[in-house]
Amino acid sequence: MKVFTKKSPKEEKNPDWAPWRQKMHEIIFEHYTFWGKEFDVILLWAIFLSIVAVMLESVESIRVKHGELLRFIEWGFTIAFTLEYIARILSVRKPIYYITSFYGIVDLLAILPTYLSIFFAGGQYLMVIRTFRLLRVFRILKLARFLGESRLLQAALKASRYKITVFFGAVVIIVTVMGTLMYLVEGPENGFKSIPVSVYWAIVTLTTVGYGDIAPQTFLGQALASIIMLLGYAIIAVPTGIVTSEITQASMEKRKNNVCDHCSAEGHDIDAKYCRNCGAKFNNPEYPA
After folding, report:
1. What is the pLDDT of residues 8-50, one digit of tens each?
2. Which domains does the chain have, with CATH numbers?
3. Distance CA 189, CA 166 (A)
């Protein structure tokens, strides 16, 4: 008679993995274990200290006195992060999924600047990209509430992308027309040397930045500038209203998904497709199963 023994979850998940790969995966990716959490905390501190080292190196007085030490620290962190990146690739079943994921791309970009600095002076300062790696703090500290809110904001921006695109196209048309009119009214003698320069002025004025490097001198030009300034205040409110409306809609969808109609379980994410308690399917058109 054939006897079946119950396998551990780790064996069921990775039956053909070497023990060292399983252990490496547990430490690097499974943050809910003791060593996994310790690894992530150490990694966060290393990322933070490496960013501080890069910032200090940009200060001339510090660079003159401690430049060699800071570069040594910088290379030490880069080598450590490189080994970590290789370990992450070795500890997953399908490395391509990790390499092409958001965190995989960020991890790669975090180590490239130091190597690029060998060929391009100042390339190491691009290591501030490592700040994106600090996003892991939400996963490590189990700040699920913040992750849920970030998904809500992402859903709102995704839903409003077409409206914002149309709005952006309208703004481009407005600044092009206004810039052209200002070029005709003021002309090169008043600083509006060409239509592109005039469009640049219109963008600066419409966005209420107002550098002041170019200013209209004629009465008609000043009147046109006043119209653009007032129009700028009205336009700024449009994308804010669009995104706010979509956030409100996404919040309503989230509240709808928070309670299961079958078992009354609460606390589901905005993109939840099934109840985490009873498995019932949610009727959410934004996230079809």
Report:
1. 444 445 556 678 888 888 888 776 778 878 888 888 888 888 8
2. 14-142 (1.20.120.350), 154-240 (1.10.287.70)
3. 35
